[in-house]
Write a structure and sequence with these properties.
This protein is of the alpha/beta class and about 425 residues long. It folds into 2 domains: about 100 residues, Urease, subunit C, domain 1, CATH 2.30.40.10; about 290 residues, Alpha-Beta Barrel (TIM Barrel). About 40% of the residues lie in helices and about 25% in strands. The protein contains 15 helices and 18 strands. The strands form 2 sheets. Strands 1, 2, 3, 4, 5, 15, 16, 17 and 18 form a 9-stranded mixed beta sheet that branches. Strands 6, 7, 8, 9, 10, 11, 12, 13 and 14 form a 9-stranded parallel beta sheet that branches. The chain is globular. It catalyses: S-adenosyl-L-homocysteine + H2O + H(+) = S-inosyl-L-homocysteine + NH4(+); S-methyl-5'-thioadenosine + H2O + H(+) = S-methyl-5'-thioinosine + NH4(+). This is 5-methylthioadenosine/S-adenosylhomocysteine deaminase. Catalyzes the deamination of 5-methylthioadenosine and S-adenosyl-L-homocysteine into 5-methylthioinosine and S-inosyl-L-homocysteine, respectively. Is also able to deaminate adenosine.
């Protein structure tokens, strides 16, 4: 139906005023929120959902993923990043990353993300045209781009071929209602200056996002400094890669000058606390980054280094780790963590005019959370309950662009049984390699 009404919800808007409506109703028309009120809404042409006992939130936004790596969940655990990446992941990907395997693994990722409240993701991988197709079929909002890197990959053999794939993805999907093509360049330690700058020029030409890994480990900082005379973020600034259309993933090891550079250029950060912990990369000082004026959002990274796509967990880890870094329980409060998972994510991806908060005129990217669940009660503070008590199973239903993508824990547009069977068969093949 083109019209939907959600009634009797406790609406957590995440707007600038952080308004909360204890017993609110919203009207959705043609995918957009057209009314938010505590008054009764009546429309005989509308589909009605009674959300008594539910929180209504903007959907969660995962700003850094490698979705098809679900096929490598648990494949090479408990290793340092560079050994893990170059000794295990890159060789495995050379054998396993095929169009069909990417399709299967992406469907599995969508099931997991949708069931844990994510309505928008930002992906960097290979065969992103397939990921875009699957996202469209699943109904989930996605930002995605082919991962540019200086060696041959499963989807391209040369940098020029990779850039051509990037541009083709942009030209095909730009202007779509839920698919937002972008440009991704892997990292300053895997890409030459020419590759980095060509990628930025492509993003600027089409007005898209550029995604890159930055300062994830101390080794990266040491290697880039030895090669360029500057640490990673400072080097990227010197060649024109820090900008308002750039999101830098991880940023664990930024020095004070680099923090100031990101803040001044409007570069955003995709913070991945669990992945950084598992790979022993370190703990990013996001409280300092936020206070410096940087937009910090949340990401899960891929499931080979996390091993989940559950943004509910990332919110909690982000808040708790920041407190330990500063020995300060007031660092990154629950409200801030939820902002990072919603409106900050939208800002970081350049989508804050259409999603990330519940406001009239924005797209209806929404989730319903069972606030009366035993693990949530009693609720003295909504933000505290969501960040510190909630788990992903409390997410009951979700919609994107006004269309339900999960109802009462049933994912609507991805065949769960066939996907699980396909991934089991694929994992059996991987074990034999």
């Amino acid at each position: 139906m083109n019209k939907k009404i959600i009634r009797n919800a406790r609406i957590i808007t995440m707007n600038e005023r952080l308004d909360i409506l204890p017993n609110g109703n919203i009207l959705i028309e043609n995918g957009k929120i057209s009314a938010i009120t505590t008054q009764s809404l009546e429309d005989t042409d509308a589909e009605i959902t009674d959300a008594e006992g539910m929180f209504l939130l903007p959907g969660l936004i995962n700003t850094h993923t490698h979705l098809p790596m679900t096929m490598l969940r648990g494949f090479a655990d408990d290793l340092p990043l560079h050994e893990w990446l170059t000794g295990h992941i890159f060789p495995a990907e050379a054998r396993l990353v095929t169009p069909e395997n990417v399709r299967i693994a992406t469907r599995l990722a969508f099931i997991e993300m949708i069931k844990s409240g994510t309505t928008c993701f930002n992906d960097m991988y290979f065969f992103e045209d397939i990921i875009a197709e699957e996202a469209k079929n699943a109904g989930i909002r996605g930002v995605m781009g082919e991962s540019m890197i200086d060696f041959a990959t499963a989807s391209f053999q040369t940098v020029d071929e990779g850039l051509a794939r990037c541009e083709a993805l942009i030209r095909k999907w730009q202007g779509d209602s839920i698919i937002h093509p972008s440009v991704c360049v892997h990292a300053p330690y895997t890409c030459s200056q020419a590759t980095l700058q060509q990628s930025k020029q492509l993003a600027d030409r089409y007005g898209t996002l550029l995604q890159i890994h930055v300062a994830e480990t101390r080794q990266e900082v040491e290697d880039i400094t030895a090669r360029t005379g500057m640490p990673p973020a400072e080097y990227l600034h010197s060649i024109g890669l820090l900008d308002r259309n750039v999101i830098a993933a991880h940023c664990v090891w930024l020095n004070p000058k680099e923090i100031e550079l990101l803040a001044r250029t409007g570069t955003s950060i995709g913070h991945c606390p669990k992945s950084n912990l598992k790979l022993a990369s370190g703990v990013a000082d996001i409280d300092t980054y936020l206070k410096a004026g940087i937009t910090v959002a949340l990401g899960t990274d891929g499931t080979a280094s996390n091993n989940t796509l559950d943004l509910v967990e990332e919110m909690r880890f982000a808040a708790l780790l920041a407190k330990v870094v500063h020995y300060n329980p007031e660092a990154v409060k629950a409200q801030t963590a939820l902002r990072m998972a919603t409106i900050n994510g939208a800002k970081a991806l350049g989508l804050d005019t259409i999603t990330g908060s519940i406001e009239i005129g924005k797209r209806a990217d929404l989730i319903l959370i069972h606030a009366d669940a035993s693990n949530m009660l009693p609720v003295y503070d909504e933000y505290s309950a969501i960040v510190y008590a909630m788990n992903s199973k409390n997410v009951r239903s979700s919609m994107v662009n006004g269309d339900w993508i999960m109802r009462n824990r049933i994912v609507c547009h991805v065949d769960k049984e066939n996907t699980l069977e396909a991934i089991k068969q694929l994992s059996g093949q991987i074990r034999k390699m």
